[in-house]
Amino acid sequence: MEYYNDRRIWITGASSGIGLALTEELAKSGAKLVITARRESLLNEIKESSPRPENIHVLPGDLSEIDKLNDISTRAWDAFGGLDMAIMNAGVSQRSLFREMEFETGRKLFDINFFAHAGIMHELLPRFEKQGSGHIAAVTSLSALIPSPLRIYYSSAKHALHGFYETLRTESWNSGVRVSLIIPGFIKTDISYKAVTGDGKAFGALDPLQKAGSSPAEAALKILKQLKKQKREIYVGYTPNAAIARFLGKFFPALLSKILRNMTSV
Ligand SMILES: NC(=O)c1ccc[n+]([C@@H]2O[C@H](COP(=O)([O-])OP(=O)(O)OC[C@H]3O[C@@H](n4cnc5c(N)ncnc54)[C@H](OP(=O)(O)O)[C@@H]3O)[C@@H](O)[C@H]2O)c1
């Protein structure tokens, strides 16, 4: 995609799933990529197997370490002498009812799924505003739109992201900054394997909803086409279940809530 050629883009959560698929597609398009996740060896493999490894800067890091966000954001900005786009994609899900959740596990879910975004934006937004341009693309979730049993902290953090980025978009519009929300339904990635249960341990299995989801590569292509148009909201992975939930959530929320009452296990 010509549009992305030479664009400087930071992608968080680039080591697997949606972030990896976006990285692969953008690398083919000639973008200059800063890629972040905790698993450095995977990031190095991605760089080495890309068509132009010199266009990829590996920037490993744990974005739930809130006091280091200042440093990693500065390094992402400096890697190619500025950024044109930031794709805030890293995230961790949940698979436990609220009554089984330890408070500390829930709080940690907020660190990666909400505060990492806010902390990074404290560093990037002033830079984007100063240069008079910058496109922020935040990956949220269908769980940001509907009640999501077994995912209460994840869903709450994703709801919070909508409030955060919609306000950020409004406040920074006149400075030339654009904000897109990417709102996946179900994509077949590792998300459910790594989703945390009450005591913080990984769920470790493929959720049937994700199993039926779109492929990450298909989702990435759709996302990039819509980001090019600077769409406010981008919907991908709307399997029949996801589409019905989204429709009911918008027009018949009480009915959706009634249906979801029986969802007490995966
Ligand atoms: N798949 C779906 O059906 C679905 C639906 C709705 C929303 N989403 C959202 O899509 C985004 C991508 O998820 P995915 O489905 O592609 O899942 P995934 O394959 O599990 O990818 C998650 C990515 O986030 C990174 N990550 C997790 N914790 C991190 C941390 N503390 N610091 C830095 N990076 C971290 C992971 O890398 P490391 O483990 O190497 O750190 C990985 O690259 C998430 O925000 C998720 O909430 C997915």
How would you describe this structure to a colleague?
The chain has 266 residues and is α/β, with parallel strands linked by helices. It has helices spanning 17-28, 40-48, 69-79, 103-131, 152-172, 191-194, 208-211, 216-228, 240-251, 253-260; strands spanning 8-12, 32-36, 56-58, 85-88, 134-139, 177-184, 233-236. The protein is built from 10 helices and 7 strands. It has a 7-stranded parallel β-sheet, sandwiched between helices. Helix 1 links the parallel strand 1 and strand 2 (32-36). The chain starts with 7 loop residues before the first strand and ends in a 6-residue tail after the last helix. The site of NADP nicotinamide-adenine-dinucleotide phosphate (NAP) has 33 residues, from helix 1 and helix 6.
Task: Looking at this protein, list some descriptive labels.
alpha/beta; seven-stranded parallel beta sheet; binds NADP nicotinamide-adenine-dinucleotide phosphate; Rossmann fold; globular; 266 residues; 7 strands; 10 helices; single chain; 13% strand
* Beta-strand fraction estimate: 5-15%
Number of strands: 7
Relative helix content: 40-55%
The top level CATH class name? Alpha Beta
Count up the domains: 1
The string of secondary-structure elements, in order, is: EHEHEHEHEHEHHHEHH
Q: Tell me the CATH superfamily.
A: NAD(P)-binding Rossmann-like Domain
Oligomeric state, counting identical vs distinct chains = single chain
Principal-axes shape call: globular
How would you summarize the topology of this molecule?
Blueprint: E1 8-12, H1 17-28, E2 32-36, H2 40-48, E3 56-58, H3 69-79, E4 85-88, H4 103-131, E5 134-139, H5 152-172, E6 177-184, H6 191-194, H7 208-211, H8 216-228, E7 233-236, H9 240-251, H10 253-260
Parallel strand pairs: 1-2, 1-4, 2-3, 4-5, 5-6, 6-7
Helix pairs in contact: 1-8, 3-4, 4-5, 9-10
The structure holds NADP nicotinamide-adenine-dinucleotide phosphate.
NADP nicotinamide-adenine-dinucleotide phosphate binds at residues 12-19, 37-39, 62-64, 89-93, 112, 139, 141-142, 184, 186-187, 189-191, 194, 210, 213, 237.
